[in-house]
Write a structure and sequence with these properties.
- The complex is a heterodimer of chains A (349) and B (120).
- Chain A is α+β, with helices and mostly antiparallel strands and 349 residues long.
- In chain A, 36% of the residues lie in helices and 26% in strands.
- Chain A is globular and about 95 Å long.
- The model of chain A is unreliable at 1-6 (pLDDT under 50).
- Chain B has helices at 9-31, 83-87; strands at residues 37-42, 45-51, 56-60, 63-68, 71-76, 96-99, 104-109, 117-119.
- In chain B, strand 3 (56-60) and strand 4 (63-68) form a beta hairpin.
- Chain B is elongated.
- The chains are: A alpha+beta (349), B alpha+beta (120).
- At the A-B interface, helix 1, helix 2, strand 2, strand 8 and strand 10 of A face helix 1, helix 2 and strand 8 of B.
């Protein structure tokens, strides 16, 4: 202690003697501090309301990517909405051949291919049904049986024709396209292209139901993603993952209620009614944003009974939560369950 | 040491001391910050900042908020789709409650728990 005190006194005397020198040295020390604080490990965070969601971003490096992110979202916000006066609305109102932008053509083309490949429980031609129920609109309502049957007749991927060369799209009369199940995932794909082009080292881009975890965190650790509890309260568990796209579908946030019955925003196009399949939330991880978005909706609609084949799929991984408090996790996922919620890991037979 | 012009041994001690103090400061700031705080924004403007350590119920505009057990939720909202109400309680800086029709946002500021993203 004494030694330490003496040294401090010695320093104090020196400081007095060499005060002018200190004026030069202090700024150097401060500079070191500022440098430590503002080095590349601090990301830029920002958020915007777009594409019918609250979009939240954290980006390390690549300054110009921030403006590009905002521009992309405000463009897609208008272009892919059923309810604005953007390109999709114009297509839905069109008759005959509609000359589409590359973006709109692509997203429709990919979605139709997915419906053929993975199953047509998700069908982007279901716009008339979406509009009829209006779950996300001012006045949601339960339509009559005959209205639903009429809307169902407009649904089917064969009702959309695409011309690859001219980028022209034509819809059968009455058919409307709803990109709600794919647009955010597709936006995540485009964000990844932006980050690759602008030297971003790491990015966490959340568009609500679809997200992109890009690159590697500065400390080298994996991304930690918590799965919300559909009943509210503490999270169900945490996924550790490297770079990935992920999308979640659940019916417990976006719904409306009539006479105590809940109607969610995800529709089963085979019945025309909101999906009720025993699942409360489905999260899909894979290497494509639009695919993760499409599949999370599809798996949610197919329900508990269809889980087995999705759990063993090679090209994507899932975490599915059932209404009897079981969590099913693909073998490839590093998932840690928080036990305090009463949920347990399920096993498929 | 005294051969180096302009800087002597004691001054190096001073510099090292200041740097160590600074690093210590940053470390303390990161790990011993006060409990979590909720920030409530309307149309991008911060309207209220409130600690989550005390349970309470309060109104802002036509919204009713509830703080309970270190978490906050929207209890009542004038909006049409009630997504903000259905979101339930949040307590983690990686979580938000957003009400698009009313341009209302609740964020949590506080100790990072190492969670990058919350989905579902």
């Amino acid at each position: 202690m004494l030694c330490g005190k003496n040294r401090t006194e010695g320093n104090a005397m020196n400081i007095k003697k060499n005060l002018p020198k200190l004026f030069f040295l202090l700024p150097i020390a401060l500079f070191v501090l500022i440098f430590l604080r503002l080095d590349s490990t601090s990301p830029k965070s920002f958020a915007i309301f777009a594409m019918d969601t609250y979009a939240d971003f954290k980006i390390w490096g690549g300054k110009e990517s921030i403006q590009k992110t905002k521009d992309l979202l405000s463009d897609f916000d208008k272009r892919f909405s059923m309810y604005s006066d953007g390109e999709l609305s114009m297509l839905n109102k069109s008759s005959g051949n509609f000359k589409a932008s590359d973006e709109l053509f692509n997203i429709i083309d990919i979605s139709l291919k997915f419906s053929k490949q993975y199953g047509n429980s998700v069908d982007i031609s279901s716009g008339a049904l979406t509009r009829l129920w209006g779950v996300s609109s001012e006045n949601p309502r339960v339509p009559s049986e005959s209205e639903i049957l009429k809307a169902l007749k407009t649904i089917g991927y064969e009702k959309i024709s695409l011309n690859e060369e001219t980028k022209e799209i034509s819809l059968q009369s009455g058919t409307e396209i709803d990109l709600g199940s794919v647009a955010k995932g597709y936006a995540c794909d485009k964000l990844k292209e932006i980050y690759e082009d602008s030297n971003v080292s790491c990015a966490i881009a959340s568009l609500g139901s679809s997200s992109l975890l890009y690159g590697k965190k500065p400390d080298g650790s994996e991304f930690s993603v918590e799965i919300k509890n559909p009943d509210g309260g503490a999270a169900l568990g945490v996924i550790k993952t490297g770079e990935t796209f992920l999308s979640t579908s659940g019916g417990y946030e976006r719904f409306f209620e009539v006479n105590g019955k809940k109607y969610c925003h995800i529709f089963d196009v085979s019945t025309g009614y909101p999906a009720e399949s025993g699942l409360t939330s489905v999260t899909v991880l894979c290497d494509s944003g639009i695919k993760s978005d499409f599949l999370s909706t599809l798996i949610f609609i197919e329900g508990k009974d269809g889980l087995k084949k999705h759990l063993s799929a090679k090209d994507y991984s899932i975490v599915a939560v059932t209404d009897d408090k079981k969590i099913y996790v693909s073998p490839g996922i590093n998932f840690e369950l928080y036990p305090e919620n009463g949920y347990t890991l399920g096993k498929t037979k | 040491m005294n051969n180096i012009p302009f800087v002597n041994k004691n001054e190096i001690f001073v510099i090292v001391f200041i740097v160590i103090l600074g690093i210590l400061g940053l470390f303390l700031q990161k790990n011993f910050s006060a409990g979590a705080v909720a920030q409530i924004y309307f149309d991008g403007k911060l309207e209220k900042e409130i600690s989550l350590s005390k349970d309470c119920i309060f109104d802002i505009k036509d919204f009713e908020f509830e703080i309970k057990d270190g978490a906050i939720r929207v209890a009542k909202s004038p909006c049409r789709n009630k997504i903000c109400v259905h979101t339930g309680f949040i307590s983690n800086p990686a979580q938000t409650i957003a009400c698009l029709p009313e341009k209302m946002l609740v964020k949590i500021k506080g100790k990072e728990k190492g969670i990058d993203l919350v989905v579902g």
